[in-house]
Amino acid sequence: MSDIKIVPLGAGQDVGRSCILVSINGKNIMFDCGMHMGYQDDRRFPDFSYISKAGGASDVIDCLIISHFHLDHCGSLPYFTEKFGYNGPLIMTAPTRAIAPLLLEDYRKITVDRYGETDFFTTPQIKACIKKVRTIKVHETIQVDKDISVKCYYAGHVLGAGMFLVKVGTQSVLYTGDYNMTPDRHLGCAWVDRCNPTVLITESTYATTIRDSKRCRERDFLKKVYNVVEAGGKVLIPVFALGRAQELCILIEEFWERMNLSVPVYFCHGLTEKATNYYKLFITWTNEKIKSTFVKRNMFDFKHISPFERTYMNNPGPMVVFATPGMLHSGMSLNIFKAWCHDAKNMVIMPGYCVAGTMGHKLLNGSRKLETDKGTITVNMTVEYLSFSAHADAKGILQLIKNCQPKNVVLVHGEERKMTFLINKITEQFAIPSFKPANGEQITISCQPQISAVMSKETFKNVRSQGNKFDGMLVRRDNQLRLLSKSEALTKLGLRSHAINLNYKLSLSLNLDGSIIMERLHTQLSSIISDQKLGTFKRQHDGTLNLNSVHITCANNRGRWVIHVSWNAEDEPIGKAVSDILEECGEDLITN
């Protein structure tokens, strides 16, 4: 059986451009094909040269799976399919297929139309890429080819996010993408059964974090927003178009309704509005509360939140604006930030993780003088970080490991220092081999040969009653291996039972009575056989000796005593031991 080889082409000891290449039982699977938001050059793409060295993309990769629509997981997909030439199986959920083109087109507009990039994918290439997608439902298993099967689990995180179990033969890999083990206001929590994958590849964004109470964070968030707008200030909340935007919009909507506030609240017109429509379309992917109230009231029809227009940016008075993208690396959120950052009355609340190199990351690390395309800006507004990120924390990652019970764990999508901390925790709690490969570093996981076979309930009960010992046959029938007891095997195969009996005879010239010969033979054999821990011979009423199927008799034939030993194949060790003793010692065994 071949080993499993894993190499991150992106997201190895890093957050961004997720792209994990797995070789399993002779098949190459690529998980995600993301973009790094912290770079504006070729470093934003995964290292596809690793693939080109081995041949064409479609010749090397047997299947490509996209976990969800965030650009750090799907941003390089049109580049890989249309420019790099991959035409093989491409799998994602229906919400991901519907929403990913929106984010890809928005990113293309910013990169090409606004910043003048020339070597980038085009709108027709995005459409051509999405046409190649095969969708998968939650808990559905699809057969990619005769060897590869893919099962999707619910990941929480964002609408349509999935965790994917890939099986090739007896080996399996569970890839999590991004997931959240805590339910929120619009999505459920991630769930996986005890699938016992050979390898679990899990994100580790918050590998050292154990979050405080979600209710406390929500209360703190609302208090900060309320205090700023009451003082006449403006609040900017950078969010990604889907996920935290809807979560925080629901929170603000309920608070504004409860407090009867009239301060305007906006979300960026266009992308987030379209995204919210997809939440309505894919309502079955949301949590039970939203699904149960959907007929009476759609929670995504906001009463207090309106679309934002660019002209509102310089309006006087307080307001709250949700703007994309969430890391302040480009787009409307960055434009609003540059317009509002000089006023100390204003506040920016960063609700999620920011990749190194982005404006958001610099702000959260204390920078207050920032370089932009229009020179240096000084930040006077208040900067707050409140984690509403939909990633699993350390407790959630350990819970997932406990649930699925993998044989090995590989950490990706995180920082090296944090991964080291989490590996120590995994070793301490589960004693499972764990790895943290860097980008371009291949790890090899040795796999013990395994044979899967079906056993009947009746046979299983018999095996358990006999201390898990099994004496039977392994039979292949209808392309399936079955463990059969002897009686089952004979019945199913239409065979009759046959017994093999073995015999040994020794002729001795002894002037002794037969009963004395058997008595001395019993004494000597019992001592020798017991020492070898093969059992104890019993002397029967007729003078013969027995141990299991081994039967010893003594008869006079024309003045010579013939010792006859017989046994069946099951007791070959005992029968052979007795015959060897008689052959070696002969008359001395009786006379001494």
Task: Give your account of this protein's structure.
The protein is an alpha/beta fold. It contains 19 helices and 30 strands. The strands form six sheets. Strands 6-5-4-3-2-1-22 form a seven-stranded mixed beta sheet. It has a seven-stranded mixed beta sheet with strand order 7-8-9-10-11-20-21, with helices on one face. A six-stranded parallel beta sheet has the order 14-13-15-12-16-19, with helices on both faces. Strand 20, helix 14 and strand 21 form a beta-alpha-beta unit. It is elongated. The chain starts with a strand and ends with a helix. The relative contact order is 0.10. The model has no long low-confidence stretch (mean pLDDT 88).
Helix/sheet category:
alpha/beta
* Neighbour order of strands in the largest sheet: 6-5-4-3-2-1-22
Shape: elongated
Percentage of residues in DSSP E strands: 15-25%
Mean pLDDT: 88
The helix tally amounts to 19
Provide the low-confidence segments as ranges. Answer: none
Q: Evaluate the radius of gyration.
A: 36 Å
Helix content: 25-40%
DSSP strand tally: 30
Compose a concise summary of this entry.
With 592 residues, the protein is α/β, with parallel strands linked by helices. The protein has 19 helices and 30 strands.
Observed structural traits:
30 strands; 7-stranded mixed beta sheet; alpha/beta; 19 helices; single chain; 592 residues
